[in-house]
Amino acid sequence: MTLLGLVDAVSVLSGGVYYGEEFVVLAMLGEAVEWVVAAVVFGVFAVAFLAATVVSVLRNTSIHRNDWLASIVERLEHEYPILRQFDVAEKVEPTTADRKQTLKQQYVDGDISDAEFEREMERLLDDGDGNEKSTANTATSIEIED
Q1: Where do Basic and acidic residues bias regions lie (predicted)?
Q2: Are 67 and 93 in contact (CB under 8 A)?
């Protein structure tokens, strides 16, 4: 505002005609229209490339899998349906193999008892398909014997 007032004062002192602030602003925009358009176009391109980069990184990055993160992502996908096209919830949800590995680690560390381990392993095997169940039973019995 001060700059516009200064321009008006210089215009009046130099014997020119007083122009309103709106006219001065429009004249300045008229002179800079090419630069404004170029800045907007470059801004749109920058946002598009940023979005493409984020999507590419999310699709190619190995993301830590856990139930807490999966529940947050599912909530976000429910809130913002456009996020479903990126399948992030499936990428962060632990697989049966991840759950088995976590369960085995808890058993080895002594965090859970034999009965809890067996019960949770049976639950995981029941959640898997038939082929996975038969191979998993063999692997489980071998590892328990070790």
Answers
A1: 123-132
A2: yes
Task: Provide the whole-model pTM.
Answer: 0.41
Q: Are residues 104 and 126 in the same domain?
A: yes
Tokens describing residue 86: 């990126």
Residues in the chain: 146
Q: Can you say how many angstroms the Cα of residue 143 is from the centroid of all Cα atoms in its chain? A: 38
d(CA 105, CA 112): 10
Q: Break the chain down into helix, strand, coil percent, rounded to 5.
A: 80, 0, 20
Tens-digit pLDDT string for the chain (146 aa): 566 666 666 666 666 555 566 777 777 778 888 888 899 999 999 999 999 998 888 777 766 788 888 888 889 889 988 888 877 778 788 888 888 888 899 989 989 898 999 999 898 888 765 444 344 444 444 445 44
The whole-angstrom separation of Cα 112 and Cα 85 is 38
Which residue range forms the structural domain that includes residue 103? 96-145
User: Does residue 45 form part of some domain?
Assistant: no
For the packed helices 130-145 and 114-127, what is the interaxial angle rounded to 10 degrees? Answer: 160
Rounded to whole angstroms, how far apart are CA atoms 56 and 128?
31
